[in-house]
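Notes on consecutive records. When two proteins share a document, each keeps its own sequence and its own token line. Never mix them. Below: protein one.
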Amino acid sequence: MYTVHREELSEMVYRSIKEMILTNQLSTGEKIVQEKIASQLGVSRSPLLAALAKLEREMLIQIVPRKGAFVRKLSVKEFVDLYEIRLRLEPLGAYEAAVRRSDKQLKELKKLLTECEKSMNKTHTGGLKKADYKFHMKIMEISENEFLYRMVSVSNMMLMSNLEGLLKTPEKSLKDHKNIFKAIAGRKGKNAEQFMYEHILESVNNLKKRENINAKD
């Protein structure tokens, strides 16, 4: 019983820290103060260390010997690589979501689109990142392609690619999301696929511009 409880506790800590990263409570490059997190979550070091080890395996944090654990800070190239993968996978998910979605799933996606819109009016960018993450992940879920969903979710590629925030204005991102939603609602697979491709491609191009600027400095 104790082993099961300990595993459940470490999973809770893992999810809590992951949520902190997603909502900007822990910023990219920030040191994770273990004593503070343990006190905040009311746990001992054992489940905390297990959670940190899992987060490191998933590349969300980096553990530096004799220095501690830090939220992973990606290079521009690493961000480009992540978005290039998303560019290949997510349009497929959008297409399949449009073809396979149920009315119930569409209502759930509409609710997340509303969350995106509401989060635009808040000063805390963590809410916008979280809303964006949930919207994209929901589309992958609605695709009912288990292999695709697991590839995207287990790798944390969406969470990691948003570590530095969105790569376009909230207004443009929301406009893209509305176009994608409309295509999925109308069961227009090709349109949903194209809108998602263009949505992510813009982020890829913005990243590449940033990479070129850094290379010149």
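Protein two starts on the next line and is unrelated to protein one.
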Amino acid sequence: MLSSVRGRLILLFLGFLLLVTGSVIATEVGLQTTAQDALIINLAGRQRMLLQAMTRHALEIEKHPHEQLHRDSLAEAASAFETTLQALTDGGPAPYTSDRIVTLPSARDPQVRNRLGVVKQRWAVFKSEMNTVLEASEGDPALSEAVAAMERQSLPLVATMDQAVRAFEQVATAKVRRLRVMQAIFLIGAVFLVLLGYGISSRTIIYPLQHLQQVAHRIGGGDLEKPVPSFGPDEVGALAQSLETMRQQLYT
């Protein structure tokens, strides 16, 4: 195949086609990954709001211990937080909206898993105090103590969750950076193939045809002394050989 002009051009075309296909696939996968990372970061950021909501509900329970609404809201926020934390760490379903559940992949980055591990440890302590709030009855002195403990533990837990969010963002940024590097490599490869195709076309098609055109004009003008140069075994070489055969026949 490489011995013919057609074969070389076909190989260049196939190489360019594979390069474009690879670029499209890599970009599509990168876009899907970016969308998934954005969803994960959004859910991780929502954890902060859930923690703040739990502390707020606990304070309302302390003020109005007889109202069941705040207890239900606290339990609902805690369930959403814990389910999401588990999904962020080990993968699985997580509530996204009131009527939508999303499935998350497990966290693979060591730094992310380390941050989430710290969040889990602090959440266990926070949850213990929260359960005391949920179970305490009106007038129980343990209620105020548990609410105060939740307030103290809330800020460190929120700060740790923020660190986990930043770790997720760093992973997402690294993926975008890798995608840009891949796109740059594909672009360089495409430019290389274009230049290679131009070089091959110039060397094996354009220059030989221009030279053979001059030879044909010379033969047409009656100059039959100089032989037609050979240009190899490809199609252009066959054309040169035909001109040489014609020159020899005319010369004799």
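For the record: The chain has five helices and two strands.
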